[in-house]
Amino acid sequence: MKTERIYGMHALDAALTARRVCFRLYLLEGRRSSRLEVLRRRFEAMDVPVFEVSRQTLDRMSGGGIHQGVLAEVEAVSRGESVSLESCLAKASGTAVILVLDGIQDPRNLGACLRSASAFGVSCVVVPRHGAAPLNALAVKAASGGVEQVTALAVPNLARALREIQEAGFWLIGLDPHASRSIEQGSFTDRTALVLGGEAAGLKRLTREACQDLVRIPMRGDAESLNVSVAAGIALYVLTEQRNRPTVASGHGNRLK
Questions:
Q1: Contact assessment for residue 125 and residue 114, using Cβ atoms and an 8 Å cutoff
Q2: Structurally, what CATH architecture does the domain formed by 3-75 represent?
């Protein structure tokens, strides 16, 4: 069984809620709080060994991450090795949403996107296997439980994956700051794959060309761009709101490229 280290209150709470196998809990020596005590008791009730260690040790074990005085060694979450894109597409409902992330480099942004995906009921998150941020402890902490709740698939060839997603009946909508149409004009009524690019380069050329629609988030202030995880949250919110409008008609008839 593969193991991994996770840290932070939310990440450990989520691991316990998801019934992940836990092997050891490490607490910052001398730190006392009601929340830490509750967490300790939950681990001890599962017969998990608890160790109090120095801040230096926790800092080293977390790789310098903000651990909030708590870290655990737990069963590793499957990163898509045992789940195929084909099976995820086959299980997807008629109004399912897939989030495609094209080359995000910061694990914290990846984790924040997973958190938004969890909040808005995304079926799965698709990322390239190479040239993108790993789903490591930083990402798990930023996801605040999203890792346990949303399937994350690392695919060897993103262009091929996008073709498979389209062939499964999903409408590919890319976020592009240079798109002519606003996100409010996008059509998110049926199976939708929302495609976002990386922090610096945005959508890569082949990814942009694979999209059937391109939309932008209007900027009405002084900022020229948004953090990718913020953009993902906004786009998923707009998608959800549009689907909840009773006047929206389904189908692809008025969709534009």
A1: yes
A2: 2-Layer Sandwich (3.30)
SS3 assignment, position 3 = strand
Q: What is the pLDDT along the chain (257 residues), one digit of tens a residue?
A: 678 888 888 888 878 877 888 999 999 998 888 888 888 899 999 899 999 999 999 999 988 888 989 999 988 765 545 578 998 898 888 889 999 999 899 989 999 999 999 999 999 999 998 888 878 777 887 887 777 778 889 899 999 999 999 999 999 999 998 899 999 888 787 899 999 998 877 899 999 999 999 999 988 777 777 889 999 999 999 999 888 775 544 444 445 44
E strand intervals along the chain: 3-7, 22-28, 50-53, 70-75, 97-102, 124-128, 151-155, 171-175, 181-182, 192-197, 213-216
Q: Kind and range of the H or E element at 146? A: helix 146-149
pTM reported for the whole predicted model:
0.73
Helix axes 9-17, 34-45, angle to 10 degrees: 30
Domain at 85-244, CATH homologous superfamily: SPOUT methyltransferase, trefoil knot domain (3.40.1280.10)
CB hemisphere CA count around 14 (13 angstroms) = 20
Whole-angstrom Cα distance, residue 85 to residue 87? 5
Please name which of 214, 11, 235 lies closest in space to residue 117, comparing C-alpha atoms.
235
- Structural domain spans, the chain: 3-75, 85-244
Count of Cβ atoms closer than 10 Å to residue 71 Cβ:
27
Three-point CA angle 189, 165, 248, nearest 5°: 5
Establish whether domains 3-75 and 85-244 are of one fold: no
Please say whether the beta carbons of 8 and 58 come within 8 A.
no
